[in-house]
Every structure is written in structure tokens, then in C-alpha cells.
Amino acid sequence: xxxxxxxxxxxxxxxxxxxxxxxxxxxxxxxxxxxxxxxxxxxxxxxxxxxxxxxxxxxxxxxxxxxxxxxxxxxxxxxxxxxxxxxxxxxxxxxxxxxxxxxxxxxxxxxxxxxxxxxxxxxxxxxxxxxxxxxxxxxxxxxxx
Length: 145
Hints:
By secondary structure, the protein is mostly helical. Helices cover 72% and strands 4% of the residues. The protein has 5 helices and 2 strands, in the order E-H-H-E-H-H-H. It has helices at 5-26, 32-57, 71-90, 92-106, 112-133; strands at 2-4, 66-68. Helix 3 (71-90) runs antiparallel to helix 4 (92-106) and helix 4 packs antiparallel against helix 5 (112-133). It is globular and about 50 Å long.
């Protein structure tokens, strides 16, 4: 499956912009305080997507080389989709605890101790920042945890 880099990036930009709009429509369910950080992230994603789209318009023909979707990219993409689909079912913390090490392993990072430390540090940091400091809820599971 051969395609140009420009087409791939335009597709990703459209995906990011649609995602930004969808996330923005979901903000109404939260208090104004809880809306602030996601709104900043949405605005940031939209701005960098539009900026990259403008940059793509200035690309020369020789910079628009052929790109192949390799196995690692598709595997990580499938893993991200599964992560997002499972998050409402098993919760943010459990799905993140499963996703991060799997993603690192698939990207050929094989140091088990470092993977464990990074995963636990990331999940603990996210818990501390979002739950304790921002008082922002993270997705809970249907299983009750």
C-alpha cells in the first residue's frame, strides 16, 4: 500500500481536527473548572494540526516521498484503538497500566524493570495530578473500579 507522505499527514490532520471537535462537544458535561485543561489540550491539538496543514501546502514535490505503513505502525494503531475502546469497560488506570507496557514492548523496548517503573510512575503521576490536584475525574470502569 503505497501513498504519499502528504496524503497520510492530511488524513491524520483531518482525524485530529475531528477528534478535537468531538472532544469539545463532550465538555458540556463537566464543570467549568474541569473543562479548563481538556479545552487547552483541544485548542493546542487544533492549532498544531492547522499549522501543520499550512506547512504541508508549502512542501516541494521531492519532499513528498512515498511512505509505507509498516507493521509496527499498524500494530500500535490497533493497540491505541483497543485502549480507547477498553477504557470505559475496564477503566482508565487499568487500561493505561496494560497499554503502556504493551506499547513499549511492541516498539522494541525490552528492559522489563524500566517498563515497570515508567508505567507505575506514569499512572501514579496521572492519578496524583488529575485526581488530587485538578479534582478532575478520569474514566471509571463499568466493573466499578
